[in-house]
């Protein structure tokens, strides 16, 4: 399939009083037309910064794209001026933000906020824009759109606001839709609704979607491919099935092991010990080495390259080196690998498995 | 909306009544009388004058007479200024003070907002620091120093502008400038602080992600959200500027309310003091009402519940 976006060796740093915080340290991935790529990782792993850098939404200063390329339709976004970026933002690349309670302008009518992008990027009249806005509000499942369009954000609940935020992002039919933890700030029942809506939209629009989350249950639900980020790097990337049933990186094992499953009651949850490294002084070797029970000497000295597992599956761990000792993943992950019919979200994951 | 304003007007009357009562009591508690300064008054003359103004009657009677007159819009007559009614004296001072105050408020707020906006957009640059210094100076240096400097350099040394009195545009420039420095400094400070917070908020990122230009980000999205605290401080300031600023009016010999109030206090002129106090109170309450209505216009979240909207 054709690539719509290629990110090559992206570095993003923040200049603080304490020094340079290297939030993203050489991220490389591509996004195919119409696919949903999930980026998972702990807080502070650089997943949000990576995607904000794609639309150049990093406040600068202190943030800056230190090096790397963001290739979109033959243009390197990293080199574009602010004015040129304004033509791309909202039209070709748009973002759904995390917290609907703060991401809408409190003194502006909902309709105007949805319409703004349309009026900016398409040469259409106010009347047409309003008509299109009503359709959008309808698409995101906001009832009574005719009345709601002239209301203010405080007249909406959290879930409804997130629907509005989604409508704003969809307004111009973006080629790339970045969903930055769109369900994290919502309570569980609303999370499920918004997730349903996202899946619904996935089918209706032909945008490619980058879905950021730290919730692996969500990943299983929506993603075609998964990139696992740790300490500003992608440590493993592959199709959703490869990541869930044949994970190679110890960090991915840790993430999967710490994910609660419904079918294995007696198993206790395994937490990943320790905490992520300080990005002011990232470690010389593999950033995960200090927390990794499978770490070898080389892990503390040199960063592992991306080893190829299959055409679609890569992982950055020395365990994949031909001289590395053979290690078995933790039991929780092994049982998942052995019997991929018993997945976290049974219905969905099984379907994925059947298809491939 | 109409219902809300009617309700507020009712509260206003009650407040004014309470203020009138308190100012009456406080005046009576003050030592001395309007006649204290007049050494030449004999006991007999004093008795005649007191009888004329009703000052010999029991305090309760005086109070009811005062309130009774007040209801009819009569603030009494001045003891000092040849028996002129207080309302007439007020009416002479109010337009002058209001003119001076409104100009100072308008010019001060306009330039203050400009300064604050630029400082917030150019946050942490030389420009921001410069604006910061200007507003700190404007807040901490009293207005009479600016007034004195202006009078000396522009009025006396350069001879460009008249140094006193009120009426021609030339006479108005220096008092207005000296009076506008403080509101400029305050509005610049408040707008800058609030704008920096608003510009860093999540919904500004949302707007930016839509491809909104920097100009529209500031003026369409941020400014309105940053106005609330500014309105809160500027309201009471508008009152104090428009109801006569004692010092500036004295320095430039502006015949405004402030001048009359000072004279009333110095001569124990009961009816002038109570009249002006009541007028200040009325004006202040009115401005508070206007501010509350403005809040609703600027911020839909505090739109008044009594309205149809």
UniProtKB/TrEMBL annotation, chain A:
Membrane-topology descriptor: Peripheral membrane protein
Protein's organism: Halolactibacillus halophilus
Family membership: Belongs to the ABC transporter superfamily.
Encoding gene, per UniProt annotation: oppD
Name used for this protein in its record: Oligopeptide transport system ATP-binding protein
Entry's Gene Ontology BP terms: peptide transport
GO cellular component term, pick one: plasma membrane
Alphabetized PROSITE patterns for the sequence: ABC_TRANSPORTER_1 (PS00211), ABC_TRANSPORTER_2 (PS50893)
UniProt keyword annotation of Cytoplasm present: no
UniProtKB/TrEMBL annotation, chain B:
InterPro entries with a match to the protein in the record: BPD_transp_1_N, MetI-like, MetI-like_sf
Database matches in Pfam families: BPD_transp_1, BPD_transp_1_N
Domain annotation ABC transmembrane type-1: ranges: 94-295
Location (main, coarse): membrane
Bilayer topology: Multi-pass membrane protein
GO cellular component terms attached to this protein's record: plasma membrane
UniProt entry tagged with the keyword Cell membrane: yes
GO biological process terms on file: transmembrane transport
Highest taxon of source: Bacteria
PROSITE patterns, alphabetized: ABC_TM1
Subcellular location: Cell membrane
Keywords: Cell membrane, Membrane, Transmembrane, Transmembrane helix, Transport
Transmembrane segments: 12-30, 100-121, 133-153, 227-252, 272-295
Membership in a protein family: Belongs to the binding-protein-dependent transport system permease family.
Descriptive protein name: Oligopeptide transport system permease protein
Native source organism of the sequence: Halolactibacillus halophilus
């Amino acid at each position: 399939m054709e690539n719509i976006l290629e990110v090559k060796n992206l570095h993003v740093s923040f200049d603080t009083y304490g020094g340079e915080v290297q939030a993203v340290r050489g991220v490389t991935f591509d996004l195919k037309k119409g696919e949903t790529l999930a980026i998972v990782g702990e807080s502070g792993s650089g997943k949000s910064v990576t995607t904000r850098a794609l639309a150049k939404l990093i406040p600068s200063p202190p943030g800056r794209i230190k090096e790397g390329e963001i290739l979109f339709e033959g243009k390197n976004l990293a080199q574009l001026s602010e004015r040129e970026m304004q033509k791309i933002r909202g039209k070709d690349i748009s973002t759904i933000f995390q917290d609907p309670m703060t991401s809408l302008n409190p003194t502006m009518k909902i309709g105007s906020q949805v319409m703004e992008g349309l009026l900016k990027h398409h040469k259409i009249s106010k009347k047409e824009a309003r008509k299109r806005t009503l359709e959008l509000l309808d698409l995101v499942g906001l009832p009574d759109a005719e009345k709601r369009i002239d209301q203010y954000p405080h007249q909406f609940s959290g879930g409804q606001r997130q629907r509005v935020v989604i409508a704003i992002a969809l307004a111009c039919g973006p080629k790339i839709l970045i969903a930055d933890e769109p369900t994290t700030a919502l309570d569980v029942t609303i999370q499920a609704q918004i997730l349903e809506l996202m899946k619904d939209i996935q089918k209706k629009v032909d945008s490619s979607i980058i879905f950021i989350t730290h919730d692996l249950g969500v990943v299983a639900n929506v993603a075609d491919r998964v990139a696992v980020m740790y300490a500003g790097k992608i440590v493993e990337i592959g199709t959703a099935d490869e990541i869930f049933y044949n994970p190679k990186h110890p960090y991915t094992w840790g993430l999967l092991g710490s994910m609660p499953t419904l079918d294995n009651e007696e198993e206790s949850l395994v937490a990943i010990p320790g905490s992520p490294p300080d990005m002011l002084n990232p470690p010389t070797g593999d950033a995960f080495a200090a927390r990794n029970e499978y770490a070898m000497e080389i892990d503390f000295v040199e960063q592992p390259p991306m080893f190829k597992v299959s055409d679609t599956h890569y992982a950055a761990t020395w365990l994949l080196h031909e001289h590395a000792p053979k290690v078995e993943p933790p039991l929780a992950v092994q049982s998942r690998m052995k019997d991929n019919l018993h997945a976290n979200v049974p219905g969905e994951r099984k379907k994925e498995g059947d298809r491939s | 909306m109409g219902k809300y304003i009617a309700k507020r007007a009712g509260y206003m009357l009650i407040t004014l009544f309470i203020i009138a009562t308190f100012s009456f009591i406080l005046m009576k508690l003050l030592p001395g009388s309007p006649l204290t300064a007049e050494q030449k008054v004999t006991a007999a003359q004093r008795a005649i004058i007191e009888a004329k103004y009703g000052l010999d009657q029991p305090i309760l009677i005086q109070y009811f007479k005062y309130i009774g007159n007040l209801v009819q819009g009569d603030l009494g007559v001045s003891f000092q200024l040849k028996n002129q009614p207080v309302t007439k004296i007020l009416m002479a001072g109010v337009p002058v003070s209001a003119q001076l105050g409104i100009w100072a408020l308008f010019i001060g707020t306009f330039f203050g907002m400009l300064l604050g906006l630029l400082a917030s957009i150019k946050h942490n640059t030389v420009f921001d620091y410069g604006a910061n210094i200007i507003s700190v100076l404007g807040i901490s240096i009293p207005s009479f120093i600016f007034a004195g400097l202006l009078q000396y350099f522009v009025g006396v040394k350069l001879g460009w502008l008249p140094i006193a009195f009120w009426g021609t545009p030339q006479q108005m420039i220096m008092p207005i400038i000296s009076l506008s420095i403080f509101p400029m400094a305050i509005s610049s400070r408040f707008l800058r602080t609030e704008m920096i917070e608003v510009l860093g908020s999540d919904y500004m990122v949302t707007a930016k992600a839509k491809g909104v230009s920097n100009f529209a980000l500031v003026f369409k999205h941020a400014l309105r959200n940053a106005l609330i605290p500014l309105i809160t401080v500027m309201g009471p300031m508008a009152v104090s500027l428009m109801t006569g600023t004692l010092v500036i009016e004295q320095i430039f010999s502006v015949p405004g309310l402030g001048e009359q109030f000072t004279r009333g206090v110095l001569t124990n002129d009961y009816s002038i003091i109570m009249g002006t106090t009541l007028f200040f109170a009325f004006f202040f309450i009115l401005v508070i009402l206007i501010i509350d209505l403005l809040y609703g216009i600027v911020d839909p979240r505090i739109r008044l519940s009594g309205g149809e909207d």
